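pinging the channel bc i need a second pair of eyes. not urgent but kinda urgent?? the chain im working w is below, pasted from the shared doc
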Amino acid sequence: MRATRRRTAQTGFTLVELAVVLAVIGLIIGAVAIGKDVQRNAEYTKIKNKFIDQWEQAYNQYYQRTGVVVGDSQVEPRIMVNGENYTAPAGSPVSGGDMAATVAAGTEPLPICQRDPAAGAMRVAAARNELRNLMTRTGIRMPPGRAEGQEDLYVYTDTNGAPQEVQVCFQWNRPTTPEGAGNVMVISGLTPDLARMLDQMIDGKPDAREGRFRQRGVDNSTSNAPGTQWAANNTYGQGAGGTTAEGAGKTRDEEQVLTLTAIYKMNQ
């Protein structure tokens, strides 16, 4: 009688099957990581296109409809943001002449915001809080921003997943202002990576000292010299001091990333 062998069912996976499974898991993890970067880049692009660009358009539309910049006098224009509330010293021209001498530091018209900016974001703590009123009285549509009545704000998350808030204001910088003179949009609440990406999209390179988009407080008085990097990176948390572009902060992912303030030079 021929002995019969019972075939036992195979259990477990072969090495080839395990290798395939591990490869698929690796691809999924890589796709998730790449997806987060793609999503963040898309969000930063949205901040540029749907918020900052639209505020620039609103500013330009105000000029086209009224003939003056935001907050300036239509009867006696000074070509200054909030120029209506600027009084020239006795015997000095309202505009023109040596404005660096005529307008002493600290006597410039107050910035125009919708709300008081974060501490240290502006050259002065106080602001004329009626940006929304000026726009709505002229019939200008503002970006949707954070919500109705908060069109000057935009909320996003930083690379640690912490919430951040961008705010826009407008102000006039007197001649000899370190980051540049003239009417500017002041944009606060930018993480270093967001500031660099916006600068790249606006000026073609991330240079904190040159171009229309610059870091507030960075001196631009050196002529024909190389630019400078934005003075921080995403390893620094809120409240960090002595930050540099190539320095190393605490790199703790439970911290909120440090933010910077930029100025965006307007055409009028």
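so The chain has four helices and seven strands. and The mean pLDDT is 86. — does that match what u expected or am i reading it wrong
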